Amino acid sequence: MNREALYYKDIKEFDATVLSCENAGEYFRIVLDTEGFYPEGGGQPSDHGKIIGNGQEIDVLDVQIEKGKVVHYTDAPLDCGHVHCIIDWDRRMRNTQNHSGEHILSGLVNKKFGYNNVGFHMDTQSAQTKGAMTIDFDGVLTWNELMEIENKANAIVVQDRKVSVLWPSKEQLKDLHYRSKKELSGNVRLIEIDGADLCACCGTHVHTTGEIGMIKCLSIMNYKGGVRVEMVCGKDALDDYRKKHELLQRVSRMLSSNIDTLEEALQSQRREKEEREKKLGSLYREYFMLYKTSRKWVEGVYLILVENMEPVQIRQFCDFLLRETCVKTVIIGSKLSSQYSYVIGTKTGDAREIGKKLNATLNGRGGGTKEMVQGAFLSTKEEVIKEVKAMDPMVHFEE
Ligand SMILES: [Zn+2]
What we know:
Blueprint: E1 13-24, E2 27-32, E3 49-53, E4 56-66, E5 69-74, E6 81-87, H1 89-113, E7 117-121, E8 133-137, H2 143-158, E9 163-166, H3 170-174, E10 190-193, E11 197-200, E12 215-223, E13 226-233, H4 234-254, H5 262-293, E14 301-307, H6 311-324, E15 329-336, E16 339-346, H7 351-361, E17 364-368, E18 372-377, H8 381-391, E19 396-398
Parallel strand pairs: 14-15, 14-19
Antiparallel strand pairs: 1-2, 1-6, 2-5, 3-4, 3-6, 4-5, 7-8, 8-13, 9-10, 10-11, 12-13, 15-16, 16-18, 17-18
Helix pairs in contact: 1-2, 5-6
The chain binds zinc ion.
């Protein structure tokens, strides 16, 4: 850990000299004489940015400490010599705000419950994290307890408390009570949030807590005997608020409602849907009855082709015919867009056998029990009739 490194000094742009550049497969490894890009460490993702020199501008995609050297992984090579470097400051600030916010929250949880932060993922811009960082604690918290902690954390932000970097001597360190993930050797860097937390850390931090902005927990779930908390701070919290607010506005407009009455509007939609389903159910029962009484039924196998009947109704129709008529086996197909949804029900045979045969000849899929199978054929009406007749020439066909 280089306490004099430029990345600890809030410098957005700097000049440097390229000491080496080598090909590393997909990337290039560049070593500079100046340590301005923050290398991944202490749970904090590395800086990104640009290196400009000799008329070239290349992207820094990752920065790692390897054998004591800060190595920059880039998308293109660069000649040795003088360069100008620009740090992606938006990314750095998001990481810094999240990191300092995480210290406050972890410190408060530790103080109140004695639980430790045993792992966190802070790269909110990576595809995996979906915009929020995660913190794992080795004890269980409820959502309400977490909300109390969140209130306290935000109060510390509003108080704009001083955040200091301490490099205590070995002697001084013995008397300090601080949080740390592992046993430390060599120089120890401590981050002190005035009156709130003291924690060993090599990350970048704000100068006063006001710079963090809002600290917002998004979710809590049980994880490895403790809990995993999802949270966002500062710019990430603002982005999260915007994204969700705009989503709520869009959904509200879809329901001709507003955000305050959205829940009511959704409940009323759900009630209306249930009412419609009830009405549809009773209309279908009438339809099944009319279908039955308008035909003369005999014992045997029936193929019935209809249109636009949903799978749930086809199943009810099949049940009804097997219960209310003397038919032995019924194959019902309903044309829905480009395919036939089907149900095969039987009182005597094995519906799975019939399903298997027809799936093979009618480009179908599906399955079920001995009494009833359900699925879909990717075939035309003519093909369905032809193949069912080929299977059983005595089949009765109805529409
Ligand atoms: Zn830290």
